[in-house]
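hiii, so i know i said id send this last week but things got crazy w the move. better late than never?? heres the sequnce for the chain we talked about at the cafe, plus the structure i predicted for it. fair warning i was half asleep when i ran it
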Amino acid sequence: MSTLPKVAWIGLGIMGSPMSENLVKAGYDVTGHTLERDKLDRLAASGGTAAASVAEAVRDADVIVTMVPASPQVEAVAYGPDGILENARRGALLIDMSSITPQTSVDLAAAAKDKGIRVLDAPVSGGEAGAIEAVLSIMVGGDQADFDEAKPLFEALGKTIVRCGPHGSGQTVKAANQLIVAVNIQACAEAVVFLEKSGVDLAAALDVLGGGLAGSTVLARKKDNFLNRDFRPGFRIDLHHKDMGIVTDAARTVGAVLPVGAVVAQLVAGLRAQGDGGLDHSALLRAVERLSGAQV
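okay and structure toks below
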């Protein structure tokens, strides 16, 4: 009999499916719920258990993990008669790994406390590849004791695991992460168009750039996307648009000025308005190409 906590996993999307499967591989008893039948079948095939509802999934869980797109979805699965707070047992630990507003995390922690449920906000960075390889960066907000309890579970999902402060801190750091990633992708996209228009061997150029100060995880992860114009979603423009809204709103609240971030947020919004919201965020290259006169 496993001594590991029983886990309920809510949300089996591009990130949630491989992450939940990594917990199964690590020996956790995982019961999952999501809206797509094929994702439930995938979890069951990996050794997990499919649940027909949020309430069914969380009822006997020691730890509940949510991995859904945005604040409204977190609120939908957390609140209400069929939600987590009404159906989880007292003493359970709720770990929200979605990327949402810091205030949503603070409010959730307060509401859960009234039900005797502990909460950590623990958004991640690393994309689909990082989720599959279990090398995610996990930024956590909440109480130290709850973080210490959750650390072994996090270690089955990622490599860089840091408590950043009280409730909402993980989401604040994730917002900063998304700002850096978006600006980095935009810079890489502009460099790609500049290099190609200059007649340089693009593959060779990206290799040498990756080995110098211009190198980054973004360039390493997205180089093939740029070279092959492969924009199958690992992290969709729609979601990065949501995240840029979070960071610009949060920055306004605290009085931080983000001039470059604001420009990139508008470029992301423009790409989405042109119908590319379902593509990977490396598709920012398409926006630069359009601005440079290409028909894409």
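btw The first strand starts at residue 7 and ends at 10. thought thatd interest u
miss u guys!!
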